[in-house]
TrEMBL record:
It comes from the Bacteria. GO terms for molecular function: acyltransferase activity. The lineage of its organism: Bacteria, Pseudomonadati, Bacteroidota, Flavobacteriia, Flavobacteriales. Gene3D superfamilies: 3.40.47.10. SUPFAM superfamilies: Thiolase-like. Residues 281-360 form the Beta-ketoacyl-[acyl-carrier-protein] synthase III C-terminal domain. This is Beta-ketoacyl-[acyl-carrier-protein] synthase III C-terminal domain-containing protein. PANTHER family: 3-OXOACYL-[ACYL-CARRIER-PROTEIN] SYNTHASE 3, BETA-KETOACYL-[ACYL-CARRIER-PROTEIN] SYNTHASE III. GO terms for biological process: secondary metabolite biosynthetic process.
């Protein structure tokens, strides 16, 4: 088995930072009316700026694949060129198209040479799943290097025009023409961007992060879907897929909109997160004092105090100076968030040899959690 190191990290955040007051300029007004939920949601998540791969007219400036490619090319230099790449592993929850795979579309933009591809689909954990594929490939000796990415392009999914037909239909039914909270909620939570890691079987001359272990957990066997798109939830908790709706329903019921069941999110995301993180640390005999930097991907600051309390009750007391977060400034970029946070920490000048870093990524899709433990070299 071979050691695996993150030898370089890069990020790509499109265009200019978008403030809270500018969000509806980019995403548009549903039914020409400002969202009543927006200010409440932003007050809870505490995000002050984020990035969109669209302009103020709602026109795309980048595809998801282009965002990933723009992060990846920053990893190439005279010591590691695009011709040296062996494995490309890409994660996303918002691919540009259903098929071909996201990694194939990114590879098509790189135009370098034949490589092994892996596409990880899901929500936030898809970025960690992409990382684990590269990690295991190198660890097993299948390859000497890999580039792993997380990227999201959700702004066009969240644009007002995607909901207009539903509003028209609601008006025709003489109902209150307001989009359900489960759909409006995520319009003020998610944003665009990409992050990329270069993994190699030897450390770089500069700073490197050795991946000691990675763990992942799913609670889908006991919990129903919480965050979903391309279908709608039935009363029994099952998801009716888009292919079983008529094309008219796709528009009239915003079937492809990203939705969040806030009730079960609040009930399960923290307890299952604490449970899985405790299990991962116990499996590898890691205690709080063995962590110098804790990088949790959280969708909202609303969950931070609850997570701290839950971990404290498990005896995992991670003091405030160990927490490293950039949610306020870059927003919730889904699968890319953990890459962007690691890139910032890696290039911050704060790290010293021997420091230990714990990554924590929850996914509310059907409650999955992923962890990685890194050593600074």
């Amino acid at each position: 088995m071979f050691d695996v190191y993150i030898t370089k990290a890069a990020k790509y955040l499109p265009n200019e930072a978008v403030s809270n007051d500018e969000m509806e300029t980019y995403l548009g007004l549903i039914n020409d009316t400002a969202s009543k939920a927006r200010r409440i949601i932003l007050r809870n998540n505490k995000i002050t700026s984020r990035y969109y791969a669209v302009d103020k007219n709602g026109e795309s400036t980048h595809t998801n694949a282009e965002l990933a490619k723009n992060a990846i090319v920053q990893l190439f230099d005279e010591n590691f060129t695009d011709q040296d790449l062996e494995v490309l592993s890409c994660g996303t929850s918002s691919p540009d198209i259903i098929a071909p795979s996201h990694a194939a579309m990114v590879h098509g933009l790189l135009k370098n040479k034949s490589v092994e591809l892996n596409s990880s689909m899901g929500i936030c954990c898809s970025g960690m799943n992409a990382l684990k594929y590269g990690f295991l490939s190198i660890k097993a000796g299948n390859s000497k290097n890999a580039i792993c990415t997380g990227s999201e392009k959700v702004s066009t999914w969240l644009s007002a025009q995607k909901y207009n037909n539903e509003v028209i239909n609601l008006k025709n039914l003489e109902a209150q023409p307001i989009i359900a909270f489960k759909k409006d909620f995520l319009r003020w939570m998610l944003s665009d961007g990409a992050g990329a890691f270069l993994l190699q079987n030897k450390p770089a001359s500069e700073i490197s992060l050795k991946i000691e272990w990675m763990e992942a957990y799913s609670y889908a066997f006991e919990l129903e879907a919480c965050m979903y798109a391309g279908g709608d939830k039935l009363e029994n908790g099952d998801i009716k897929p888009w292919s079983e709706f008529t094309p008219e329903q796709w528009l009239n019921e915003s079937v492809f909109a990203v939705k969040q069941d806030v009730k079960i999110l609040d009930e399960f995301i923290l307890p299952k997160g604490v449970e899985s993180m405790s299990d991962a640390m116990a499996k590898h005999n890691i205690k709080a004092e063995d962590v110098d930097y804790f990088l949790p991907h959280v969708s909202s600051y609303f969950f931070v105090e609850g997570l701290k309390k839950g971990l404290d009750e498990k005896g995992i007391v991670l003091t405030d100076e160990k927490w490293f977060m950039n949610l306020l400034r870059v927003g919730n970029v889904g699968s890319a968030s953990i890459y962007i946070a690691v890139e910032e920490l890696m290039n911050s000048g704060k790290l010293k040899k021997g420091d230990k870093i714990l990554l924590s990524v929850p996914e509310s899709g059907r409650f999955s959690f992923a962890y990685a433990y890194l050593t600074v070299y």
